[in-house]
């Protein structure tokens, strides 16, 4: 009889198992890591006073004084429940914010089931409702599906529907898309946007591209102290492109964080909380009015911001006092550099 050759199995070699895919998160947080590097848009002096009344209830007073825009005062209340999924997620959550002009912005977040989250957003401009929005989000093991209903009105037959879907293809790659459908008397349309995100060990690249334009961002963590971000936005309808480079420098010994930004594009406008300065949009936030076309070319040049954030100052009875001072420096070629300060 001849010899029979059979493969020899190495019983000592462990079997290779694929890592389980994680949840990709929310569609609105695709560019979050890059955006957190950039400083907050602000002009003047902002005073924030936080007071924790209990383990579930907190109030915040915000005073913003500016010589460029309009000064404002905001009173914010936050209530959090007992169910905590992560250090930053606690359900249910109720948030309310009212400004000195009487405009209200309220949000309610609730965990209906282990994988289903709901959110309701209401926004008023003085005594008139401008936004009412309802969100439902389903988070699976490796996917996230979201459906948003904005400003539904059965009488005028108008509605805005936004659908999001994200899927973790690999442990580093996430793909998905967004569809926005709007309907009102005499007008109806839909826009589809594709999205992708790749996460490496020290950097994250994200791209959104659709009919209306593209939004790309790159985040890189050099070390424990230095983080940088690059963001590019192109709008095909407005024929407008903005580019920004931001950095964050942490100084643990001084208990300080520095954020800076340099970029090209339309300079941001500053708006207070009174009517006529902001145009509300679905999502509970307000978008500044666009610049006048005659002055847009003047402001569409390079801009640079330096944002030092001081350490927390603790007051009596657990109150926290934060005094933020930010300086906005804008330069326009070929004119000299202009500085806007206090």
UniProtKB/TrEMBL annotation:
Keywords: Membrane, Mitochondrion, Mitochondrion outer membrane, Protein transport, Transmembrane, Transmembrane beta strand, Transport. It holds the Pfam family Porin_3. It is found in: Mitochondrion outer membrane. Residues 275-300 are annotated as: Disordered. This is Uncharacterized protein. Belongs to the Tom40 family. Gene3D superfamilies: Porin. One of its GO terms (molecular function) is protein transmembrane transporter activity. It comes from the Eukaryota. PANTHER family: MITOCHONDRIAL IMPORT RECEPTOR SUBUNIT TOM40. One of its GO terms (cellular component) is mitochondrial outer membrane. Its main location: mitochondrion. It is a multi-pass membrane protein. CDD domains: Porin3_Tom40. One of its GO terms (biological process) is protein import into mitochondrial matrix.
